[in-house]
Design goal:
Number of strands of chain B: 9
Radius of gyration of chain A: 14 Å
Oligomer: heterodimer
Shape of chain A: globular
Order of helices and strands of chain B: EEEEEEEEE
Number of helices of chain B: 0
Largest sheet of chain B: 5 strands, mixed
Distance between the termini of chain B: 36 Å
Helix content of chain B: under 10%
Largest interface: A-B, 30 and 26 residues
Structural class of chain A: mainly beta
Helix content of chain A: under 10%
Number of helices of chain A: 0
Largest sheet of chain A: 7 strands, mixed
Structural class of chain B: mainly beta
Order of helices and strands of chain A: EEEEEEEEEEE
Shape of chain B: globular
């Protein structure tokens, strides 16, 4: 199957700093990527849809200025958690669909990035 | 809100078939049923998907009811490594189709 890679897998930062998480599609192009957040023992919560070359679409209740998303190329989307606070500590996961010619719509997920804000 | 409902947890004996149900009564005509599983602290892994016909691959089988309002994922010979949270989602087969996850089913395979 297609490969989606996230980096870093784990990050610890101090309160007030910003953290960038990268999501790359390694063997296919992704005009759309999705960012999720997951709390312990909870399901994945969709945060936003990242669109290549245009603004991201955020889900209701997700702060756009807090979670900056940039989709600068067909293989890279980044999520920046700005001015991080302990309540932002979570597991962040990205995914990309393989759709269109030759694709069958399944989402492929990155390995996830665990953010801990001290 | 999630478009699917699944039992919270299930147990299965090692070597036996695991049958995981999912209800998606509000599924639209252009939405596919996808199954994923997630092992602790990893990203979800794709298992199988279908539109209206039953599907089988090397990992599992997917049975979709004729009215498409529910489906069952079948792991034919469960192993201990199949212990995970299993998610059933519905989404269009397009780039922009959003995927909302429900709470999933925690499958525990026991020796």
């Amino acid at each position: 199957g297609a490969v989606v890679s996230q980096h870093p897998s784990r990050v610890i930062c101090k309160s007030g700093t910003s953290v960038k998480i990268e999501c790359r599609s390694l063997d296919f192009q992704a005009t759309t990527m999705f960012w999720y957040r997951q709390f312990p023992k909870k399901s994945l919560m969709l945060m936003a849809t990242s669109n290549e070359g245009s603004k991201a679409t955020y889900e209701q209740g997700v702060e756009k200025d807090k979670f900056l998303i940039n989709h600068a190329s067909l293989t890279l989307s980044t999520l920046t958690v700005t001015s991080a606070h302990p309540e932002d500590s979570s597991f962040y996961i990205c995914s990309a669909p393989v759709s269109g010619a030759g694709g069958t719509g399944e989402l492929f997920f990155g390995e996830g990035s665990r953010l801990t804000v001290l | 809100d999630a478009k699917t409902t699944q039992p919270t947890s299930m147990d299965c004996a090692e070597g036996r078939a695991a049958n995981l149900p999912c209800n998606h009564s509000t599924i639209s005509g252009n939405e596919y049923v996808y199954w994923y599983r997630q092992i602790h602290s990893q990203g979800p892994q794709y298992i199988i998907h279908g539109l209206k016909n039953n599907e089988t691959n090397e990992m599992a089988s997917l049975i979709i009811t004729e009215d498409r309002k529910s489906s069952t994922l079948i792991l034919p010979h469960a192993t201990l490594r199949d212990t995970a949270v299993y998610y059933c989602i519905v989404r269009p087969n397009t780039n922009a189709g959003k995927s909302t996850f429900g709470d999933g089913t925690t499958l525990t395979v026991k020796p």
